[in-house]
Every structure is written in C-alpha cells, then in structure tokens.
Automatic annotation (TrEMBL), chain A:
It comes from Palleronia sediminis. GO terms for molecular function: 5-oxoprolinase (ATP-hydrolyzing) activity. One of its GO terms (biological process) is glutathione metabolic process. This is Hydantoinase B/oxoprolinase family protein. InterPro entries: Hydantoinase_B, Oxoprolinase-like. Residues 5-521 form the Hydantoinase B/oxoprolinase domain. Pfam families: Hydantoinase_B. GO terms for cellular component: cytosol.
TrEMBL record, chain B:
One of its GO terms (biological process) is glutathione metabolic process. It comes from Palleronia sediminis. This is Hydantoinase/oxoprolinase family protein. Residues 205-497 form the Hydantoinase A/oxoprolinase domain. PANTHER family: 5-OXOPROLINASE RELATED, HYPOTHETICAL 5-OXOPROLINASE (EUROFUNG)-RELATED. It comes from the Bacteria. InterPro entries: ACX-like_C, Hydant_A_N, Hydantoinase_A, Oxoprolinase-like. GO terms for molecular function: 5-oxoprolinase (ATP-hydrolyzing) activity. Residues 510-685 form the Acetophenone carboxylase-like C-terminal domain. GO terms for cellular component: cytosol. Residues 7-184 form the Hydantoinase/oxoprolinase N-terminal domain.
Length: 551, 691
C-alpha cells in the first residue's frame, strides 16, 4: 500500500493531534505557576515549516491562533541557515510574533528530519511576573509597553540543544518571581521537545513527503469543512454599534458570503493611552474564535479552517494599536471584540449563538506575603460566570468565558494553603437579572479574606455597567464587579483597580454576571419558576413581578 | 478424601453473569471450569446461584469466592441511585454546582454543563471552619442541623453526604456531624468525605461523597441479598468483593463505601496481567483489554499497577464529567472495541467508534439487522476471524450483510471493499496505539522494556500488530484470554489504598514528620484489618510519597524503602529527581516538598497458585487444523496456518503467518512472528528480528 493512501494520511493527522495533546499534558504537569497548571492559561500547537497551524492541544481557544503567528515571525526574522536542529526560540512581544501580552511567553522549536525543516512545535503560557512597573507585570496605570515587563523580540534561548544561560539569566533577573519563571520556562522546553520527538518519529516512519502531504491534506480538509458550513449561514451584511462601560462606542460590520466571512472593524476609536489596546493579530484571533464556533465546533481547527475569514482594522485604532502601546489588559478589549461579533450575529444565527454571557476575563490579581511560609504569593486568575440562555435551555451557571475553555478554577482548599488567605464563600450569584422564558445561568460570588499586612489587588473587569445582552425579549443579565470590604468597615466597588493596598481581614468580594435570558419571562414554565424559588435562585416577589407567577 | 481446593470468581455484568472456577486437586493438577448465565435484575443473587449450578459448583465446597459487579457504575450512569441531601461548610453549598468551571468542548457555545446530582434546595450549610493545617478556626455549630434533617425528611431524602472544608486535614467536624445525624435520624444512610478520601480539592471530594451516598443504599441492598442468597445455599464464608484498586475487600467494608467498586471490572483484568507477568518472569507489562465497545490499557512496572485518585465518569472532549476521588487503577479507555462502528464523515474521512453496535443489533455479520460495518466485520472479511467458526461456532456469520456494510464504506471512500476493511483495521489499530502511548511513552517509559499482555474478546486479534508498532519485547496472550478478569480476581490480595494530603518541606525534621504520617496510616490500616479478623502480622505495606518541586502542583510518586528519617531525605530527594527527569526530561535545582502519602496495605487471603504443566514436544502439527488466506492489512495476503487453541500444548512452537482459534478469541499471528506455548498454556508471540 502506498504512503499516500487516505488511511495513512488520516493516521498521521490523528497522531499530530495526539502529539499536541501530549505537549499540553507535559506542560501542565511540570509548570510552577498555578495560572498554568491549574487555570491552564496555556496552549500548545504544531505548525508546518512555514508557520501554518496544523493542530493544537486543548486549553484556551484564544490561544489557538497565536502560535502560528509567532512561528511565522521567527521564520521571517531568521535566515534559514540560522534555524538549526535543537534550537528553541522565545518571544513575548506582540510586535515580534507574541500576539498577546508580555506575560505570555511563547517557545517554538523547529523540527527536522534528514536535515530538512519539516514542522515546528510551539507553546504559550502565562508567566506570573516578567518585570515591569507592578507585581504580576500587569498594571492599569501602564501607558507604554516598557512598563509592562521585559520584551523578548523572538530570540534564541537554546542553541542546538544547549541552553543560552545569558538569555535565561536576563529573563530571570527581570522577574520578581525568578524561580517560578525558570521552572515554567523549563516546563515549556520539555513540552516543545516532547512534541518534536513525536513528529520526528512520524516523519521517520512514514517518510518526509508523506508526512508533509498529510499536513497539507489536513489543512485542505479544514478549509473544506469551514466552507461547507459557511454555505449554510445566512448571507448578507450585519452591523452593530455597542456602548461600552466607559461610554465609548464600538462598531462592527460582518459580511457573510458563500466564499468569505468579512469582519470590518475599521470604524472604531483611536487607541488609548492605557493598557487595554489590542494588536492586529489579537483582533484576528477574536474573529477566528467566533468564526470557528459558527463553521464547525467539531472539525479540526487548523490553518485551512480559517482561510475564508478576512478581518479589516485601522492602524492606530484600539483594535490595531501601534508598536510601543501598553497592552497588558488587551484581553478585556479582545473579549469585547469577540462578544461584539457574537452579539451582532446572534439574532440571525440563534441555533449556534446563545444570549450574552458574563463576557469578561475578570482578571483578578491578589498578592502579598504568605503568613505561614513567609514566601511571596500572587494569585493570577480569570473568573467564572453565568452564560446566556438559548431556545429550550437555561444558560450554564459558573463556567469560564468564551475566551477560556478547558480551564479550571482554583479550589478553595488549595488557595488557602498556597496563598495564605481564607476563602469565606464560593457561591452562585442570585442577583436579579437574566430572566426569560429560559433563564441565564448564575454568576459567581467569591470572597477572599486577606491574612497579610501588606497585600495588593489589581483587577480589570468589563460588562460591569453595560450588562449581558438578552435575546427574544429576555431580561439582561447582571454585571461584573469586585467589592473591597475593608477591615475598618469601609467598602468600595470597582471594575478596574490597580495596586490597591490590602491588609489583614480585608475582604475582596468577586461578583460575576448572571447570563442574559432568552424569550419573554412571562412565558417561563410555572413549574420551573417554582423550582427556582425552592432553590433560592429567585425571591417569590421577583418571580411574581417578572414571571407573573403567584406562589 | 484429600480435599480439592475450589476457588470461584463470579462477575455480574449488564447482560451476563460469568463464572470461573479453579480447582486444585490433591495431586497438584488444576482444572478450570467456566459457565455463563443471564443476569437477573433486580434479584441479582439468583443469577449468581444459577451460574454456580450451571457450572456444577456446590457452594458448600467453595473455599474462596471473589465477586465483581457493575452495580455501582450502572447505578451512576443510568441515574438509578437514591435522592441525596448534602451538608457542607457555610458558604460552600454551591461548590457541587460550580464545579471547576471548565468547558472542554470550547468552540461549542451551546455546551451543556453536567447538572449536579443534588439540587440546590437539598444542599445545606453548617457554620464552623478548620484550616488547611488542620487547626480549628471557628467551632462547629450544629444548632441548625435538626431543621436541615427535617427538611431532608420532608423532601424524601434517602441518603446524606457530608463534606466540610479541609476535612482531609482534620476529621473532627465531619465526625461530629455524622454522630449527630445518626442520633437524630437512626438508620439513615450517611457518608462523610473523610471516610472515602483524605485528599484536598473540595469539589472533587464533595462530588465523591455525593455519588457515594447516591449508590450506597442500592449497593448495600445488592450485597446484602447476594450474601444471604449464597449463605442460604451453604457458602461457608462471605465472598470478597473486587475493588477499583486491583484488590478485593470484605463484603462488610464494601457495603460501607461501595463507591470503591466503581471501576472494579477493568481492575481485575489489569491485576491479572500483573500477576501473569510475575508468573512468567515479565514484571514490566503493557496490559490491553479489548471488549465489545471499548479498549482499555494500563501500564504495570516492576509487577506493580499504578493506582491514582484522578478518576472521572462521563468525561470526554464533549463534557466535563464528574470526579470520583477513590483509588482506581490508572487506565486509558477509548471507544474502540469489536463492535465499534466504522463511518465516513462528510469530508470522506474514515473513523472507527466510539459508537458501538452493542449486542443488538451487533456487527452486520451477526445477521440481526445491523447495517453498520464494525471492526469485527472487517476482521471477518479479511479472513482474520474464521467465518465458519464465528463466536466459537455459535453464530453463523452473515457474510452478505458484512459485505454490504463494508462495500458502503468503500463506496464513500472511493476504494474497494477489501481496502475499506483494511482501512478499518488500520484506523482501529492506530487509535489503540495512541492509547497505549498515553500510558507508556507519554510517561517516559520505553515500550521496548515491556511485554504486551492482551486479553478480552478482541485483544489477541490486534495485539501482534500493536506490539510491532510499539516495538515491545514480546506479546503474550493468556490462556482463557476472554475470561481473564476472573483470573485477576482470584489472584488479588485484600488491599486498601490510603491517600492522605499533608504538606511537608524536605528540611531538617521532615523525616520524623513523614514517618509519623505513615505510622498513623499504618496503625489505622492494621486496626481495620484486625477488626475484620485478619492477623495484623500478615499485613504488608508499600509506602509511596507524593513529591514535587516547591510551587508546582502535580506530584510524582516515589516508592519509599523502610523507615523514613532525616538521614534518608537525601536519598528520597535523589529518587524524586530521577523519577521526575525520566518523566519530564529535565530536573531542577529547586526545593522539594512532599504533598502527601499513598499507603498500600495488603494481606494475602490464600490466593490461587498456578501449577506449571510439563513441557511437551515442540511440534505443533497435532493442533493444526487447516490453512486459509488471511489479509494482514499492511503486510498483504498470506496463506496462514490455522491452529486449534484447545489443542495447543505446553512446549509447542510454530511460526506466522498463522491464526489460533479457540471458542473465546482469535489470535492473529503475522508473517515473521514466532510463537511458543508456555507451561501455563499462555501464547508467547515473538515479533521478529528483535526477539
């Protein structure tokens, strides 16, 4: 049987997926930072020799489209004879293939067979501190990227198998948590190496030509799958303008045709001086995520899957910021782009798109000295929240936003041990909002009680004032915010806060949105309303008022 | 008359109740009896009594009985447990519903989060806190408990689960709640998390307690009726019950925490593989069990199975599933068995599984109306399974139906029926190779150091091809491969795995601290065994420490030899660095900490000793029953020798291409393979140049 038969190609393609998963498992088990091993704020991927994504390990959908852009930058920067077996490259800068923010270190390793470059394995993960003006490297006060940490403009960290200690020393010297960073970088190296070994094995077994053809076929398959779905979508031009928490208006125009899915984001505000700018590559990823959900959540996500997608941005706008801009909180702007496209299309494609969810990373950073160990701790965590309802089903309570996927929250028992604080409460948010014929899912209430004299809180939440959007006459959801109840009895509410001082017995109360409702609340099944009341999810008064059900 | 020792294993499955009996006669010879009868819900004990009768076994003469059952896993997956009320620490009743927040099917925006087993109205809270270090922070306040129990009674709750924060570190609050519940509501089924596990992570522990409570009344009733039924027929001693940790446990202990049975089926097979490995001098085993709907695999190193507490049901790429934090043999399961359906997607790509044709309609060749081509149909078409001896001759293969089904796949792929069948076998093999890699290469094990032991109805059909791909030492197909699980049950010890979370930095003084944790767990184990009539002197321990670099989360288990003291810490750290580097390719110059211990306590209970038979002549021709053309997929068509498995005797030897047929299974032997039958009638397949 020749090496070109469809079964052989299929076997190689399955093995690419297995290799990406294996890279993911290796990184997860060895990382030092809880944001990587528990929250799984990381991704792994395999690209072809030119940097087209072939497969990716599970984790975060928002990371799937990152690694190809990183590899392409490296391939463009380094002449072919400077890319050698055993090399590993590192980047974190959005204008040098880093795509996201400086905390996310991307490592990429070229894979060779018979002396020929055949693929790349790559890995991205959030590191707890890469320097900059604030602990954790993220500060709402940053106005330029140099305040957000050390920039790594795609450099070699391992040369033909040998660690360049100079590079590693520079990186660790620039971190407030050098041991964590070193452990996490080594974990990433183990991950790209394990993937490279598998690919070498595949090319050796089936032959280089067959291996390469399998990758090409896989991408063509991804494209065919996407185009077949694209043909099923409603064709036309859809537009939306949406007010943001800060009063700015974001605009989107989506044109769906038989061969193209065009997202026009040019008509948007200029970039700002703060850290909420997104870069062009990042904006593309937001569109890729919605596009993927519309054109086949089940088919593989590779370069081919995204070929029909085009995104237009305007340089100098908030969605295509110029080099040097602060971008630390890029994710809150990107999740807005993602939600904007989703909301624009939801009324037209309800079978794929539910009503609005809490739609924020709700990035929460708490740090200080662990009172029992005397060691520095930093919590870096996204939050879970309520999702919107759809025809026939209530929304999900407390899962991660559309930006995060196979991501896990941190157990209270582990948080108390690791971070030396108390978790007073972890509960469903029963605030009014999100009612409908089908209700939105409940958000989260999470209370951290501080046990250290000098701690800090940084947080950046959107969907705080402008709430999750309903469909078909449902109620909008509730908002995301963080409350700080000081030990002295004072209290304040924030959506963005940077470096707020905390001390013993202060309570940080994270509150995330309930998702939005679908359909007229008066049409909700009376039995379902009675169950909601018994479950303490709605008061009898509110049930009477909103659902018209008398108990 | 000198007594024949009679050991019996019975296994209650969804459809059939199986029996295997090993009789060791006074002259040392052995006899194996097997029998099968229908499973008889809800009076399962009748099926067990029926199968004993069918096998001609008088319960009065049985010296040892092991029993395996799917009652727990079935009650869970079919949602046939009881109504549960949950009591948690104040502020944490929603943990069960919040779960971990993950969305595995992340591009699907209509993902449906698994619903909790206890609705919010039946989740109650009590004030009181202990810390992660096990000290009391706020006293437990039980004043609200009577009202909670009244509410539970009014709602028709039949079992109560209790899970309080940090109960793994300090059990006193949970114990106090238990005591009060028993006083207020005598006879109610109740379980607290610390009775099942002493590990941290409140969602996993809470869900474990809830699922345990959910199945407890069902399982207790099942075991009670089984025991009474067998005793009434004269069985001298209660049966031992197979557990998920590859051990058996007493019927009484199992009734208290039945959730430990959840994966007992696969566990017995893997334990059988470990024991078989010891018997034939191959302590490093890759074990593969291929059944009708799934293939499961596990790795055994140095004769020891790996036991973990990271077990989930209903978890997939589509669903987060539910965790059950009990000791379960480390296994990978994929939806690829003999009945797995082959299908072609909208883009012309061939897939096998995870949908299965099941027992009805079954593979197309069953002739029961199945239209889908399955792995079994492909194996029949390629001549690997004898079409004239299908299912041991009990079923007439409907080759026309198989051809129609396979031709339809071929038409969609644009290839011939032969090529479609070859493709199905190759895809199925590749799925299984990837699963085997997950338990071996992915964890830093070199498959060349391992022997592949393949069992279950379909294991032997694929084993040689998989072994070749993975370059294992050799492949062994055990005698009576299709009932191998029963062999494992009979080889099991009374075994309990204790996991205790406790953080210890490896500094001066750590030796004593670690020793104290083990000593306490060992005392508890001995006391429990003693209370059950086991001589504490007969209890043997294996001590594992769970270590990591400071700040990491995941741990690496290291076997600790002897008493732990400060003097031993250096060696322990070295062992950790080495184990870590093997699995992850690098080591760090960073502080090491212990996160907890894993103690294995076991006591032998007179297990089966296999007797070798005499080695006879190498000539296998007496077992040769014919020749036919067989398609080996990648290696093409060959005239293969066909052997009658029942006639293969110790010492016989032959070469591939060949097929061995016995009523329960078919062994496919590829060109270049060489086969030997050992003194226990196991089939050893040497794969080629390497052996």
């Amino acid at each position: 049987m020749s090496g070109d038969d469809p079964i052989t190609l299929e076997i190689i393609q399955n093995s690419l997926q297995a290799a990406a998963d294996e890279m993911f498992a290796a990184m997860r088990k060895t990382a030092m930072s809880s944001i990587i091993y528990e929250v799984l704020d990381m991704g792994t991927g395999i690209t072809d020799a030119t940097g087209r994504i072939a497969s990716s390990g599970a984790g975060i959908p928002a990371f799937i489209g990152v690694l190809d852009k990183s590899v392409r930058f490296i391939v463009g920067k380094f002449p072919a004879d400077e890319i050698r077996p055993g090399d590993v490259f590192i980047t974190n800068d959005p204008w040098h293939g880093g795509v996201t923010h400086l905390n996310d270190l991307v490592l990429a390793m070229p894979v060779f067979a018979d002396g020929r470059l055949i693929a790349w394995t790559a890995n991205i993960a959030h590191n707890s501190d890469v320097g900059g003006m604030a602990p954790g490297s993220l500060s709402g006060d940053a106005t330029e990227i140099w305040q957000e940490g050390l920039r790594l403009p795609a450099v070699k960290i391992i040369r033909q198998g040998v660690m360049d200690d100079s590079v590693l020393d520079i990186i660790t010297a620039n971190s407030r948590m050098p041991d964590f960073l070193k452990g996490d970088v080594w974990a990433a190296i183990a991950s790209v190496r394990v993937g490279a070994r598998r690919l070498e094995g595949l090319a050796g077994k089936y032959g280089i030509e067959t291996f390469l053809r399998a990758i090409d076929h896989f991408m063509d398959f991804g494209e065919r799958a996407a185009r077949a779905e694209l043909a099923q979508l409603p064709h036309g031009t859809f537009e939306l303008s949406e007010e943001q928490d800060d009063g700015r208006i974001f605009n989107v125009k989506v044109t769906i045709g038989p061969d193209e899915f065009l997202v026009d984001l040019r008509d948007n505000p200029d970039q700002d001086t703060g850290p909420t700018n997104a870069c062009k590559d990042g904006t593309m990823i937001c569109a890729q995520m919605v596009f993927k959900s519309l054109t086949g959540a089940d088919s593989p996500a590779n370069d081919g899957s995204f070929r029909p997608l085009k995104v237009l941005t305007r340089e100098g706008s908030i969605f295509d910021a110029r080099e040097g801009s602060a971008i630390g909180f890029y994710f809150e702007t990107e999740v807005r782009i993602y939600d904007l496209i989703w909301r624009c299309l939801a009324p037209h494609i309800p079978e794929r798109l539910p009503a609005g969810h809490f739609s924020s990373i709700c990035g929460t950073f708490i740090g200080g000295i662990h009172p029992d160990t005397g060691r520095q701790y930093t919590i870096v965590e996204p939050q879970i929240g309520g999702w919107g309802a759809w025809e026939g089903r209530d929304g999900n309570p407390c899962i991660f936003s559309g930006f995060h996927g196979e991501t896990y929250n941190t157990p209270a028992e582990i948080s108390e041990a690791r971070n030396g604080l108390f978790v007073d409460r972890m509960a469903l948010n029963t605030a009014p909002g999100g009612e409908g014929r089908w209700n939105g899912g409940r958000g989260l209430i999470l209370e951290y009680r501080i046990r250290t004299e000098t701690g800090f809180l940084t947080a950046g939440y959107t969907r705080s004032r402008i709430k999750p959007w309903p469909l078909q006459g449902g109620e909008e959801g509730s908002g995301n915010f963080v409350e700080v109840h000081k030990a002295d009895g004072s209290a304040a509410t924030y959506s963005f806060v940077s470096g707020l001082s905390l001390t013993t017995d202060d309570v940080v109360r994270v509150v995330t949105s309930c998702g939005a409702g679908y359909g007229d609340p008066k049409q909700r099944d009376a039995e379902a309303v009675r169950r909601d009341i018994e479950d303490g999810l709605i008061t009898p008064e509110r049930a009477h008022e909103i659902h018209g059900v008398a108990i | 008359m000198a007594d024949t020792i009679r050991r019996v294993a019975t296994d209650v499955g969804g459809t059939f109740t199986d029996l295997v009996a090993f009789e060791t006669h006074p002259d040392g010879t052995m006899e194996i009896i097997t029998a099968k009868s229908d499973t008889t819900p809800p009076d399962f004990e009748n099926g067990v009594l029926n199968v004993l009768k069918k096998g001609g076994i008088d319960p009065e003469t049985v010296g040892f009985m092991a029993h395996g059952t799917t009652v727990v896993i079935n009650a869970l997956t079919e949602r046939k447990g009881v109504k549960v009320g949950l009591i948690t620490t104040e502020g944490f009743r929603d943990v069960l519903e919040i779960a971990r927040g993950n969305r595995p099917d992340f591009f699907n925006l209509h993902y449906e989060k698994p619903a909790p087993f206890v609705p919010r109205r039946l989740r109650a809270e009590l004030p009181g806190r202990v810390t992660y270090q096990g000290t009391e922070r706020t006293p437990l306040d039980l004043s609200g408990l009577p009202a909670i129990l009244d509410h539970f009674r009014a709602e028709g709750v039949e079992a109560i689960a209790v899970c309080l924060l940090h109960a793994y570190a300090n059990t006193t609050h949970e114990e106090a709640v238990l005591e009060r519940i028993r006083a207020e509501w005598p006879g109610v089924s109740v379980v607290a998390s610390h009775q099942i596990t002493r590990e941290w992570r409140e969602y996993e522990r809470t869900n474990t307690a809830v699922l345990s409570a959910y199945v407890q009344p069902v399982a207790a009733q099942y075991l009670g009726k089984l025991d009474a039924g067998l005793k009434s027929q004269g069985l001298p001693k209660s049966p031992y019950i197979m557990q998920s940790n590859c051990g058996v446990d007493s019927l009484e202990a199992t009734s208290a925490v039945p959730i430990n049975m959840v994966e007992s089926g696969p566990a017995s097979g893997f334990w059988g593989a470990a024991e078989l490995g010891k018997l034939i001098g191959e302590p490093n085993v890759l074990a593969l069990d291929i059944g009708g709907t799934t293939a499961k695999c596990s790795l055994i190193e140095g004769g020891e199975v790996r036991i973990m507490t990271d077990y989930w049901i209903e978890r997939s790429r589509k669903s987060a599933g539910y965790p059950i934090m009990v000791p379960v043999v480390d296994l990978v399961e994929i939806g690829n068995g003999g009945g797995s359906i082959a299908w072609v997607d909208d883009f012309g790509k061939l897939h096998v599984g995870p949908q299965s044709a099941g027992a009805l309609p079954g593979p197309a060749a069953y002739g029961k109306g199945g239209r889908d081509a399955t792995t079994t149909d492909a194996n029949l078409w390629l001549g690997r399974i004898n079409r004239d001896y299908f299912c041991g001759g009990e079923v007439e293969a409907d080759m026309a139906a198989a051809e129609t089904a396979l031709a339809a796949i071929g038409a969609r792929l644009g290839v011939s029926t032969d090529e479609a069948a070859q493709g199905i076998v190759r895809i199925a093999n590749n799925n299984m190779v990837n699963a085997l890699k997950l338990v071996s290469l992915n964890r830093g094990h070199d498959t060349r150091d391992f022997t592949l032991v393949a069992f279950g109805g379909g294991g032997a059909m694929h084993a040689a091809a998989l072994g070749q791909e993975l370059q294992v030492k050799k492949v062994v197909v055990p005698a009576a491969a299709s009932v191998f699980s029963a062999f494992g049950m009979m080889m099991s010890d009374l075994r309990r795995d204790y996991f205790v979370t406790q953080l210890v930095d490896l500094d001066a003084g750590a030796g004593d601290a670690i020793e104290a944790i083990f000593a306490q767990a060992e005392d508890q184990a001995r006391a429990t065994f003693e209370a059950e009539g086991v001589d504490p002197g007969q209890v043997a321990f294996l001590r594992y420490g769970k270590f990591r670099y400071q700040n990491q989360e995941h741990t690496t288990e290291v076997l600790l030899d002897g008493e732990v003291s400060d003097a031993a810490l250096g060696r322990i750290a070295d062992d950790f660095h080495e184990a870590y580097e093997r699995e992850y390719t690098y080591r760090l110059d960073a502080p090491v900490e212990m996160v907890g211990v894993h103690l294995v306590a076991r006591a032998e209970i007179g297990k089966l000793e296999m007797q070798p038979a005499e080695i006879g002549p190498a000539d296998a021709s007496p077992a040769l029953k014919g020749r036919r053309e067989v398609d080996y997929a990648l290696e093409g068509r060959h005239e293969a020798d066909i052997y009658d498995g029942d006639k293969l005797a110790p010492g016989m030897s032959f070469a591939g291409p060949a097929i061995v047929e016995d009523p329960g299974t078919t062994i496919v032997i590829h060109p270049g393979n060489r086969v030997e039958i050992d003194a226990y009638r196991n089939t050893h397949i040497h794969l080629g140049e390497r052996s």
